[in-house]
Structures
1.
Amino acid sequence: MADAPSMDVVVSLCKRRGFVFQSSEIYGGIGGFWDYGPLGVELKNNIKQAWWRATVQERDDVVGLDASIIMNPRVWQASGHVDTFADPMVDCKSCKRRFRADELVEHKHEAESVHGQAVDIAGVPCPDCGGELTEPRMFNLMFKTYVGPVEDSASVAYLRPETAQGIFVNFDNVLTTSRRKLPFGIAQIGKAFRNEITPGNFIFRDREFEQMEIEYFVLPGTDEEWHERWIQERFNWWTGLGVRKEKLRIREHTEDELSHYAKRTVDIEFDFPFAGFAEIEGIANRTDFDLGRHAEHAGRELKYFDEESDQHIVPYVIEPSMGVDRCFLTVLIDSYAEEEVRGEKRTLLRLHKELAPIKVAVLPLSRNEKLVPTARRVWDLLRPRFMTQYDDAQSIGRRYRRQDEIGTPLCVTVDFDTLDDEAVTIRERDSMEQVRVPIEGLVEALREKLGGA
Ligand code: GAP
C-alpha cells in the first residue's frame, strides 16, 4: 500500500471519477473555487451527516442552527473582522504575482543564509521570478457586496468569513426558545467565504468553502476543562472516521499566532503530502469576547442567569471549528491505497463505510438478456435502502476495480446460477472476500456488513 499518494494522483482521481471539478472549467476556471460532482456531493453529505450525528443527534447538550450568510455589517465590526481579519500581502514589481508576506518567511530564511545577514520581508526576492517585491500591505479577506439596488457605502455587506458569528448573534434566541442550561452548544454547517491571497493545494485553501462549527457555552472558570474535553472529543471523531492516528497531531498555537479573540487554541493537523502537518480543525477558547462585543455594539444584554450564583453572567465559549472541504481531502488522501493483486495493480479508497459515496454496486455478470431482469429486480430492491450504482459495462474484474477506486464497500454480483438458486454473491472491497446469499436475505446481509452505515 502506498503510504501517501501524491497530490497529482488525488486530483486526477477526483476529476476522472467525478468527485471534484474546477469551477467554471469551460471558461478556464476561477482560482479558489471548486464544484463537487456526483460522487463528491455524496461524500461531502456523508461527512456532514457524520458530524451532525456526533455533535447534535447523539449529544443531549447541543442544538442546531442555520443562519444566513449575509448579516447586518455591524456584526463584522463588533466581531473585529472589519478591522483585523486581514493578511499581509506583497506584490512582485516585475511579474505582478501576489504573495502572502507571512508565507515568504521560508524564502526570507533562504535569503538570509545566502546574504549571511538578516533581511526584512521586503528584501526577499519574488519566489517565482526573483524580482523585487513591494512593502507588505494589509488586505482584508472578507468579500464585499451590496444589499439592495443602490451601490453606496451604506449598502455594503459582507459574505460571512466564518459561520460562528451567526451563532453568537442568535445566542439569546436559542437560549430562550430551547430553554437550555449551561453548558450547552449550538452547531452549524454552512458556507464561508474568504478572499484568500493565495488559494491553493486543490481544495485545501479555497475562497468559498464549508465550515462545521460548534460554539459551546460554559460557565467562566470551567472553560479550560471543557476546552481539554473538546480537544479529546474532536480528535476521537477524526480517528472514529478511520483517519490513521499517526497521520494526525495536536498542535498548540503560539502566543503570536492566536486570533484576536482567543485565550488558547489548538489545531488538529493532518500530514498532507504537499505541506506536511497542516490544520484541519481548530479548537479555540474564545472566552466571553464575542458575546461581550455584540452586547456592547448592539446595546443588548447577552447574558445567562446562573441559578447557583444568583447572577447574570456572560458565558465563555469553546469553539471546535472545522472545514468540510479539508475533511474531504483528508479522508481521500488517508484512505487511498494501491495494492498488487495477482500481478495486477488495484487502486482503492478504504473509506469508512459511513462516508463511502456508493454503499452497494449491483453488477450483472454480463449484459446477457437472461440476466438483466433479475439484476434489475435486485437493484430495485436495494435502491430505496442504500445508495447504489448499477454497472454492466466491461468485464466483471474491471467493474470491481472501478468500484474499489471510488471506495464502494460492497458489490453484489448476479450470475447465471442466480437464475436457478435465487442467490447472489456479495464481494467486500477491502478483503475481496465473497459470500453467496439468497436474494430474500440480501437486504439484511448488506445491512449487517455495512454496520448501520
Ligand atoms: N470560527 C473560527 C474559524 O473560522 P479558522 O481556523 O479560520 O477558524 C476553521 O477556520 C477551519 O475552517 C479550519 O480548520 C479549516 O478546516 C477551515 N478553513 C479555514 N479557511 C479555509 C479555506 N480558505 N479553505 C478551506 N477551508 C478553510
Note: The radius of gyration is 26 Å.
2.
Amino acid sequence: MVTELKNHSIALHYLSILRDERTGSSNFRKATIILTHALVLEACRQLELSLESIHTPLEKIEAQKIKGKLVFVPILRAGLGMLDAALDILPNAAVGYIGLERDEQTAIAHCYYSKMPNLSGVQRVFLLDPMLATGGSASQSIVKLKESGVENVSMVSIVAAPEGIQHIEGLHPDVDIFTASIDRELDVNRYILPGLGDFGDRLFGTD
Ligand code: PRP
Ligand code: URA
C-alpha cells in the first residue's frame, strides 16, 4: 500500500521549500522536520493500541496507549534529518541505524554500517529515508530487518519515484510506503525528477 500526502497544503508548501534550489541548509532542515511530523503521524494511524485504566481529574477511564515497542531506523546519512522529528512523535521508540551509500556510477548502494536494538517482539519498524529513488537502499534495509526477524516494516520517505515504489512493491508487498510526493521519474543518473537534488548534500551542506 502506498499513501501519498496529496492535497495537503502544508505538505505541498514545505515540499516546495525543499525543492527550491535557493533553500539553504537551515530552512531545508526545518522543512524536513515538518514533513516528517506529518508523515510519521500518517504512518502511525493504524498502530495497535492497548487499554490502560487511568484517572482523569474527574473519573476513571480505559485509556488507549500505543501497544508494545516501536523502532525507527534512519538510513544514513539523509535519514538522520528525519530522526529527531520522528522521535518528537514517539519519544519512547528505540533507534537502529543502517549506513548505505549509492555508488555514483551504478547507483547501487553498499552497506558500511549497521547497528540495531533488540528487535524481538517489536510492533513495527519505521524505515526513515527521505529519498526512495531506485528503491535499492530501502530494499537492502528491508531484507536486513526481515533477516533479523522483523515482520512489520513501514517505509517513510519524503519523495518517492515510481521506479522505487515498484521495486519495493515487487519484492516486499507487505511493506507500506508513506510519502509526501510521488514524483515523475528517475533521470539517467537515477536522481528523482523533479525531485530536490541530493538530499544528504543539501541537508549537511556537502557536495
Ligand atoms: C540517497 C538517499 C537514499 C538513497 C536513495 O543516499 O538518502 O538513501 O540515495 O536511492 P535509491 O533508492 O536509488 O537507493 P546516498 O546514497 O546519496 O547517501 P547519503 O544519504 O549518505 O547522501
Ligand atoms: N538520492 C538523493 O538524494 N536524491 C535523489 O534524487 C536520488 C537519490
Note: The longest helix spans residues 25-43.
